[in-house]
């Protein structure tokens, strides 16, 4: 079945879909041009909230030599030579980018590479430099040792002082980052956000947040970003929120932060009672987290963060690119009880419980995807994946080289994920328009493919609305888009309806199915979830429980690293009514779109380099998109 909204996207490409919609008589009466008053988003803009350059400590130590300028040039479609000498280019440019270099020891790696005297004067600094210069395994050992010192907060104090707020070197590096963003920001054509990563990792627990500014360089240069290493910095998110508050107060600007890799926090990313440092999840904590964290990075190179099969045993698609070995530096292995504080779906559920207790939901966030690339290169395509770091760029050995290894365990290199990007529904490709869309959560994350997904929630959508030539207009007029809130109705027996449209990536794989994931809290404060198949390809059937048990099939040829769109659908859409709705229960809904099976990046490596893949390597996956949720509350 074809849907007008999707057909419009195909035919109009980047031109506003609104121009293809039918004009009502009232619109003709109000304005000769009915589009004058339109303010809602008509285009999705693709980008990456999380790219590191050689200025980041770990990126530089692992061999990245490409800087901030190169990050923007690459994102805009320019052909570059990677740090390992490999020509590289995106198949399609991005619309926007956030360079998010680590603030701790920002610029130290490039100074170490250059052998600056103040670094060589320290015994540890000299040891790290010598290892770097030797290259190969020696460089890897030196890099891991330095990162371990960072994670365990045991860096030489003179280095912390020299590369922290107040130091000339730190201000100089920040100026370089801001300057590059200003140079490459081209409103309407390409957005270069000013941002950074606040890399809190106490005892190896990943509590990282990226910060994105709405503003231009004049405001960004009134401050320098915060760090986490003592004594100058703090690993407590409450102190990051304080910095954000002070930034807005001082400059009149706007900022927000988004966390990532809860899967490496060993349960501390989404606390419900105590924080990692012994603080309490109290009214102040939930208020501040709700204010400053409107987004979460749900998928990236270091694993997918939507769900886990232990938490969601009835979801056959939850077992997807899970990283569950231990914390970030593998100084503590994972225990099953840690998982509920690590994954987005469970956090959304726990947010309902905290909202019932405090009146505020701290985990009311939208979804985005990112790469977390440390190569300067924002690559998320399976056949064009340049890895996490320079040491994991395309080569015959990368599939067998551990990402990280300790005495307790190992995360294999072949488990790196070629993921992901964020789609932002916005009025224009500018810092202001995209930032505002992030705040209202009209975003979705994908594992790399650029599917176009619309998700509306309301009370009166019909199949006629979905098939109408002005379906997008009706979506906004009759309800709320992804990221929004549904208001309670006077008729308690009336269930919400959701209008969903999904179009495959124009150069990607067909779609298997569209699902709605629902979570809710009952009168006894018990949390629940259910996954509903709402639209499936082919002639497969969805049963009375909302499940399509028939698999879509598999066309992957592992020897040739190919697949075929002879199965699946180019687009799927439906209007779905919640069959289990209870008007007294707070709930959330989000859409998950699954592609047909395709080869993972390791299969392309096997073909190109003639390498034997590890027996436990995952060879095939179903890439996907996650929309931001729509929430329902009886009190709204």
Structure description:
It comes from Rubritalea profundi. InterPro entries: DUF3604. This is DUF3604 domain-containing protein. The chain is α+β, with helices and mostly antiparallel strands and 636 residues long. It folds into two domains: 45-426, no CATH class; 451-632, no CATH class. Helix content is 26%, strand content 20%. It is built from 18 helices and 27 strands. Strands 1, 4, 5, 14, 15, 18, 20, 21, 23, 26 and 27 form an eleven-stranded mixed beta sheet that branches. Strands 6, 7, 8, 9, 10 and 11 form a six-stranded mixed beta sheet that branches. A hairpin with a 5-residue loop joins strand 20 and strand 21. Helix 4 packs parallel to helix 10 (168-184). The radius of gyration is 24 Å and the shape is globular. Mean pLDDT is 94; it is low at 7-23.
Quick gist of this model?
The chain is α+β, with helices and mostly antiparallel strands and 636 residues long. The protein has two domains: 45-426, no CATH class; 451-632, no CATH class. The protein has 18 helices and 27 strands.
